[in-house]
Amino acid sequence: MIFRLLRHNRMKEEFKMRFVADTMLEKLARWLRILGYDVVFDSSKSLKELIEISNGEERVFLTRRKKFPEGVAAETLYDLCSENFNEQITRVIKQFDLDVKSKLFTRCIDCNVEVVKVIDKETIKGKVPRMSWEGFNDFYECPNCKKVFWKGAHIKNTVNKLNEIMDSM
Ligand SMILES: [Zn+2]
After folding, report:
1. Confidence band (pLDDT; 50, 70, 90) for 12?
2. What is the pTM of this model?
3. How many C-beta atoms surround the C-beta of residue 115 within 10 A?
């Protein structure tokens, strides 16, 4: 169930979909980041802190939690209603009409920040396997952890995996 999701009555295109994932939803959080979506996930934070982030930054709070302590309430909450990951990701994609193609792999899965295109690939020589360095021209780097990404076979595998999940629902 969604509470007050469109409380500002914005047009859908203007509504920048951002999330906070509850602490038990690490896999879902990482997959949404793979799709390119901004998802706060931090298992070191308390429920109260996560909900403060969610409310303060107008992020949808994704959870499976049924009960909340008194005085702790997310303004915008989506109840996943399932412990099954395939069901969870499918629900979120459908509910929020997420774009599962165009922003794929634009965000660091560990840091939740957008990756930056590497201008001169000489600068990352030695940071990626030689075969990949020679075979690809477009590389992306996380400005935070400095990990380098490129659009190799794993992209296709991820897309296939996602299609499999969506088809099975
Ligand atoms: Zn990173």
Report:
1. very low
2. 0.86
3. 21
Q: Quote the ligand 1 centre to 112 CA distance (angstroms).
A: 7
**Cβ 116 vs Cβ 85: under 8 Å:** no
According to DSSP, residue 78 is labeled E
78 near 32, Cβ under 8 Å?
Answer: no
Sketch the domain layout of the chain as residue ranges: 12-95, 116-168
> Taking 50 as the threshold, does the pLDDT of residue 10 lie above it?
no
pLDDT-derived band at 117, boundaries 50, 70, 90: very high
Helix (H) or strand (E) holding 159: helix 153-168
**Per-residue pLDDT at 26 exceeds 70:** yes
CA of 58 to the centre of ligand 1 (A): 23
CATH classification (class only), 12-95: alpha beta
Cα of 139 vs centre of ligand 1, distance in Å, is 14
Give the distance (Å) from ligand 1 centre to CA of residue 1. 32
For residue 105, the CA-to-ligand 1 centroid distance in Å is: 12
Q: Kindly state the DSSP code that residue 113 receives in the 8-state scheme.
A: S
Residue 10 Cα to ligand 1 middle (Å): 31
